[in-house]
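Module 6 notes. Inverse folding takes a fixed backbone as the condition and produces residue identities as the prediction. Think of it as a translation problem where the source language is geometry and the target language is the twenty amino acids. Below is one complete input and output pair. Work through it position by position during the lab.
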């Protein structure tokens, strides 16, 4: 399929992975334990039960800390990117990637998070990684915090509820800018910062069982979020000061909601959901809490503890661009209790009869991506970057080949909608598909939930050669990049 390309010249076609899902080597070269290292593979749970899949109890944390097992804790092994990064980058270069979004594992640089000097072995690894990316002309897009905060800060500081984490994170960020700034122009602060209520342990280190009530836990999460907002602004400040030409973005999960009907109550519910979703990027773009959120916090009697200067920091150090993940849309209805539901990586939703559903319960909505792009650009007037998008599927390796026409179909339809958004004037920096090679799933810790253009020979328990194989979609995406989106 050919189309007229409206993708801008220099569009950063790419892929995305995260340290905790790809690197492995969880206890090598001085690395400390992160929250990802206590995430269990739970085969007895329904893969659509994302709440239970993400949850980690105090007992599970304690049990995990005593174990060196990698079978039950798949993010400890990842796909061995730590040792195979040159091989993988060579494949990404052959694929034609212009950019690669990765994250830095905080615990490789500061194993507990509290050290005053960084771990040199961690710095050495990332310097080698970035040098190789630059040699291959792959632009790094680097996330500072992608669901991999030091576990020590959870156990000893109550995570981001503690103000001390602002100081510790800024120290870590400045270390990254000092050592990697010569290689990295584009930075993201916190991955899917809006996920604080979907999985607070993973995002901000809040263990909900430690609080007396849901209300108390909610207040703690908002406090933790405020500290991340301040830390993000300070990281933006130092990136601009320490790296000439640096660009810093926020990162949001775009959880687009539609009203089920024209019933004004349905429309109001969808509007409320979308506005709540925008709250997180509003703070980082506009530099202040929106009035509706101030009203909500007052109604709930939630008092966020600030120190003098916090509001000024948020206002002065705002982001340069807006990045986001987009996987699915959802439906809002006043009558949803009696309606058929679907699962998803975001939230349970009323089923949309006009959309197909993936094997993991996600409703596939390419047009929704175009809607999201237009709405975000109209709201913020900043360049946009789609840094996660893709579909998890079961793939079959047969004689070294993987015929994944379903993945090609998915991306083709989404790229068509991005192209139309560009035609309508949306300013875009680039697109990085989630899991450009197969990695351990964030939510279910599976390998069988595959996203990549490159197959990794490993199963859910870690068995396999870990050899890499190109899927049919590899060659298709290669052509898309070569033609700047004209050939789908």
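Target side of the pair, the amino acids:
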């Amino acid at each position: 399929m050919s189309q007229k390309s409206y993708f801008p010249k220099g569009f950063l076609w790419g892929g995305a992975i995260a340290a905790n899902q790809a690197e492995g080597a969880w206890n090598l070269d001085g690395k400390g334990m992160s929250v990802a290292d206590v995430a269990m593979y739970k085969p007895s749970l329904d893969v659509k039960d994302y709440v239970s899949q993400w949850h980690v109890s105090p007992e599970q944390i304690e049990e995990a800390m005593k174990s060196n097992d990698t079978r039950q804790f798949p993010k400890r092994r990842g796909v061995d990117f730590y040792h195979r990064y040159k091989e993988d980058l060579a494949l990404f270069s052959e694929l034609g990637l212009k950019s690669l979004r990765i994250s830095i594992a905080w615990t490789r640089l500061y194993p507990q998070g509290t050290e005053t000097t960084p771990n040199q072995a961690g710095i050495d690894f990332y310097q080698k990684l970035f040098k190789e990316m630059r040699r291959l002309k792959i632009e790094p897009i680097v996330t500072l915090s992608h669901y991999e905060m030091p576990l020590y800060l959870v156990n000893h500081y109550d995570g981001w509820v503690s103000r001390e984490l602002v100081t510790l994170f800024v120290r870590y960020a400045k270390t990254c800018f000092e050592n990697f700034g010569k290689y990295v122009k584009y930075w993201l602060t916190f991955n899917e910062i809006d996920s604080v209520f979907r999985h607070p342990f993973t995002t901000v280190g809040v263990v909900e069982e430690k609080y007396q009530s849901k209300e108390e836990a909610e207040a703690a999460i908002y406090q933790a979020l405020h500290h991340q907002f301040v830390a993000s602004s300070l990281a933006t400040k130092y990136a601009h000061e320490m790296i000439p030409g640096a660009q810093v973005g926020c990162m949001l999960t775009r959880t687009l909601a539609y009203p089920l009907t024209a019933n004004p109550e349905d429309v109001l519910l969808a509007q409320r959901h979308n506005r709540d979703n925008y709250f997180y990027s509003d703070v980082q773009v506009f530099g202040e809490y929106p009035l509706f959120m101030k009203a909500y916090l007052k109604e709930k009697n939630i008092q966020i503890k600030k120190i003098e200067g916090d509001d000024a920091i948020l206002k002065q150090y705002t982001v340069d661009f807006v990045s986001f993940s987009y996987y699915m849309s959802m439906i809002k209805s006043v009558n949803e209790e009696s309606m058929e539901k679907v699962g998803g990586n975001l939230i349970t939703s009323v089923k949309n009869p006009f959309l197909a559903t993936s094997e993991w319960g996600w409703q596939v909505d390419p047009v929704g991506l175009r809607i999201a792009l237009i709405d975000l650009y109209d709201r913020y007037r900043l360049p946009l970057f789609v840094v996660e998008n893709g579909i998890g599927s079961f793939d079959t390796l047969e004689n070294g080949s993987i015929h994944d026409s379903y993945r090609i179909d998915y991306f083709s339809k989404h790229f068509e909608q991005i192209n139309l958004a560009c035609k309508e004037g949306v300013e875009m920096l680039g697109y990085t598909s989630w899991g450009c090679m197969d990695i351990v799933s964030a939510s279910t810790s599976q390998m069988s939930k595959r996203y990549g253009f490159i197959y990794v020979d490993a199963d859910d328990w870690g068995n396999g050669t870990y050899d890499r194989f190109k899927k049919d979609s590899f060659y298709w995406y290669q052509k898309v990049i070569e033609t700047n989106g004209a050939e789908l």
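Reference fact for the lab report: Residues 59 and 379 are 43 Å apart (CA to CA).
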